[in-house]
Amino acid sequence: MNPWRRFGTPCVPTEGRIEELLCALWYPGDWHLRDDGSVTSIARRPIPSAGATYAVHTHVIVGGDGTDGLDPGHYAYDHDKGQLLRRDNARETAAGWELPRSPSPGSRLVFSVQPGRSFGRYRHRAWPLWIADAAYALEAVRFLLDTDFPTVFGPGPEIRAQLGVPPATETSAWLSRGLVPEIPLVSIELPSNWDIASQRRHALARRRSPKLADFVRNPVRDTNAAHLAELAGQAWIAHADRIETWKIIPSASAETIYDALWHAHRAAARLCYDAALSQKVRCRPVSGIPAAAESWTMHAVAMLDGVENKEEKAE
User: Fold this and answer.
1) Which residues face 188 on adjacent strands?
2) Which residues contact 201 (CB under 8 A, 6 or more apart)?
3) Hey, which of 78, 130, 222, 303 has its CA 20 to 30 A from 117?
4) Which GO molecular function annotation, any one, does this entry have (predicted)?
């Protein structure tokens, strides 16, 4: 994660709903496995991430009225240590950063992405995955709170002004402070009266994508899944009981593709989280599918019916 501590951001104690929400979103579980079954050093999170790159960063803007024991201000969340860090506006403006917009009475949750985490693995295919990871985070909040809320989508000056951060293209402004660029992608206005339903928190906590071996043990039944497996170059997809896909014409305008990417990944996230709640279907998101000349499958979800075999270690 971005080392905001280098910017003089002290750790502050959290309690109540904010702590519960951040833990429900990002509390680390067991370790990711490689395709051969060996263990990696990357902890699994309740929210899936393309290639386990976990590019999303979380910022909390506490409004003028304060909330859950937190004073008004801007905070960065350390996903690895599970700690909330309070940003020092005076130190940041002295370094040449713009002063963040004064918080409104309410509070906000802002998801940004650290582009280098995905780019290092996916290169030119990374940019749709930034939206993918942010969309899954956004829908996780909606799932936990079981309500809709006003949102501002980035990138752009509006959402950067809320955080008071320079554009990601101004790399020297970030690197000179010991940070790497972030791109704010979505800002959520938290309702004035919100809570997390315990059954939804538990559902998200136990959500895990099925192992590839779980798919391979399944016979090939669905011709659409077999076709997607060939298109994606991932043979395991052919063994899904069924798939859901979202497509677009590659020649569509940039604005149309942008909107379609958000729609596709938000819909896929809702499918995955609702499945975790019902425990009737297990879902594994599929990203990075190459585009053909006439059609691009932006995203897909491969599904297996039934619950996980409890005799096997949960993934």
Assistant:
1) 109, 151
2) 20, 24, 144
3) 303
4) oxidoreductase activity
User: What are all long-range contacts of 72-77, with beta carbons under 8 Å and residues at least 24 apart?
Assistant: 72/103, 73/103, 74/100, 74/103, 74/163, 74/164, 75/12, 76/2, 76/4, 76/9, 77/22, 77/26
Q: Where are the domains of the chain?
A: 4-202, 207-305
d(CA 136, CA 141): 9
C-alpha pair distances (Å), 198 with each of 20, 142, 201: 10, 14, 5
Distance CA 80, CA 110 (A): 17
Instruction: Please name the residue that has the structure tokens 């290092």.
Output: 120
Record the pTM.
Answer: 0.91
User: For the chain, what percentages of helix, strand and coil (3-state, to nearest 5) are there?
Assistant: 40, 20, 40
Q: How many residues does the chain have?
A: 315
Burial class (CB in 10 A: 0-12, 13-18, 19+), 263: middle
Question: In 3D, which of 99, 19, 111 has the Cα closest to residue 67?
Answer: 19
Eight-class DSSP state of 73? E
- Nearest-angstrom CA–CA distance, 99 and 4: 16
Cα 228 from Cα 173, distance rounded (Å): 43
- CATH class, domain 4-202, is alpha beta
pLDDT digits (tens, 9 = 90+) for 67-117: 878 989 899 999 888 899 999 888 888 878 888 877 777 899 999 999 876
CB atoms within 10 A of CB 110: 24
- Using alpha carbons, select from 288, 286, 284 the residue that is nearest to residue 303: 284
What is the Cα 282 distance to its own chain's centre?
A: 19
- Any idea what the Cα angle at residue 151 is, between residues 146 and 154, rounded to 5°? 135
pLDDT digits (tens, 9 = 90+) for 158-198: 999 999 999 999 999 999 888 999 999 999 999 988 999 89
End-to-end CA distance of the chain: 23
The number of beta carbons lying within 10 Å of the beta carbon of residue 104 is: 14
* Cα(12)–Cα(28) distance, integer angstroms: 20
Query: 277: how many CB neighbours lie within 10 A of its CB?
Result: 16
